[in-house]
Amino acid sequence: MSNRGEHTELGDFLRARRAEVTPEEVGLPTSGHPRRVTGLRREEVAQLASISVDYYTRIEQGRLAGASASALAAIARALRLSLDETRYLHQLAHKSEAPRRRKRVQQQVHPQTQRLLDNLTDTPALVLGRHMSVLAWNCLAAALYTDFGTLPLRDRNLLRLTFLDPQIRDLYTDWESAARNCVAFARMDVAHSPADPELQALVGELSVLDEDFRQWWALHDVAYKTFGTKQFHHAVAGDLTLDWQILTCPHDPDQSIMVMTAPPGSPSQQALRFLISWATESGDARHSVQP
């Protein structure tokens, strides 16, 4: 069945979300007897959303093509979904209506984007592609994370590095928080391309090699954070607290630029300047574009 991947993901997502909501939280009466399911039953979600049980069941089981926007909005309210989760729900539910995408070609970074990165001499910056692949970087990003140019092409992926590279694990002051944010960010890709073989291969590999990833991916948490703060402990520069933001590239919506900055005059800005000096002297922080 051509849409089996979408239906499985939609059902798993809804089951995971209703398992997190208790009847008490949404004002439903409880009988006091032990419940066979964790969280809300399908019947209770349907009641809260003011739709029939059969209608909700068909949505969750993927047997309804094109659920109405009003019904999805009501389900989102019933399950107390965040804005990102609501967006994800709508994308999954309407995936079967979307036109078939053309075969994907290898992503290329525009020369102007690379020049932008190179001109950010005091700011770490990366270009991220589909599924958090690292397509390009500047010298300071290589000095902060790793020399991406020495890695095999398939290993230039921020999600894979976060879980499988000990150096990157040690780089984050709060690795678990950073890793879970990566998982939630990467899961948003499922709504766009649930049957993407590259995404399936990456998820399969990480699920086999890392128990934390396997457990967190199964939670179906989604979040599309485009800004925040990261704390690092760099082996050379010491502790850094950097603000980050993600900007979509104008020539390719599947590419984004992640830029990290430090407040003026802060210890983190001084640490970045030291890192610049160290990288320049060592000559190890080269930039490159994915071939």
Automatic annotation (TrEMBL):
It comes from Rhodococcus koreensis. GO terms for molecular function: DNA binding. This is Helix-turn-helix domain-containing protein. InterPro entries: Cro/C1-type_HTH, Lambda_DNA-bd_dom_sf, MLTR_LBD. SMART domains: HTH_XRE. It comes from the Bacteria. Residues 39-86 form the HTH cro/C1-type domain. It holds the Pfam family HTH_31.
